[in-house]
Specification:
Length: 186
């Protein structure tokens, strides 16, 4: 509570001074050192100690090492990018080559398929001709066999007819006359 009473007295004293137009007196040490001078002196001593301990050199060397690391990382990134671009170009070339090879293979397959179809057509035509020839030969053979069989049947029929005619029209007397005639002709 004592603190509140002191603050209240100070506030009244400040209000009274402001009311009377009195200026506030600034504190001084040794009669000439003001608070601003103390701050300036402290800052000068702090800066002097920092210079004496080579803090700016440490800060700049730290920044320089950071800059060097960043440059190194940038150079590595540039190298990686160049490598990636080279790989991308290589794969693009491989893809283009593969597409070209695929087109060539497709064209070759088409030519082979056309050749196979043409050969199959030629073989089919040859086979049909061969089968027709075989069928014609079989038919001709069957015709020859049929003609031969007909000839044999005709010869047998003629023989049988001749036998029956000879048996009917010739007897032992007629045969004797024929034999005698044949002998005389010799």
């Amino acid at each position: 509570m004592a603190d509140f009473s002191l603050l209240a007295v100070a506030a009244e004293h400040g209000a009274a001074a402001a009311a009377h137009g009195a200026e506030h007196a600034e504190p001084m040490a040794f009669g000439f050192v003001t608070p601003g001078m103390w701050v300036a002196l402290a800052m000068s001593v702090l800066i002097g100690i920092m210079v004496w301990k080579k803090v700016p050199t440490l800060i700049t060397s730290g920044l320089d090492s950071s800059i060097a690391q960043i440059r190194k990382q940038l150079d590595e990134a540039k190298a990686l990018r160049a490598e990636a671009e080279a790989l991308r170009q290589e794969y693009a070339d491989k893809i283009a080559g593969a597409e070209k090879d695929a087109a060539t293979m497709l064209e070759h397959a088409r030519h082979e398929a056309d050749a196979i179809v043409a050969k199959a057509e030629a073989d089919t035509t040859t086979m049909i001709a061969r089968r027709e020839k075989m069928a014609e030969d079989k038919i001709a053979g069957a015709e020859r066999a049929a003609v031969g069989e007909l000839r044999a049947q005709a010869a047998e029929a003629a023989t049988s007819a001749a036998r029956s005619l000879i048996a009917a029209g010739h007897g032992a007397k007629a045969d004797k006359a024929l034999v005698d005639e044949a002998i005389a002709g010799l």
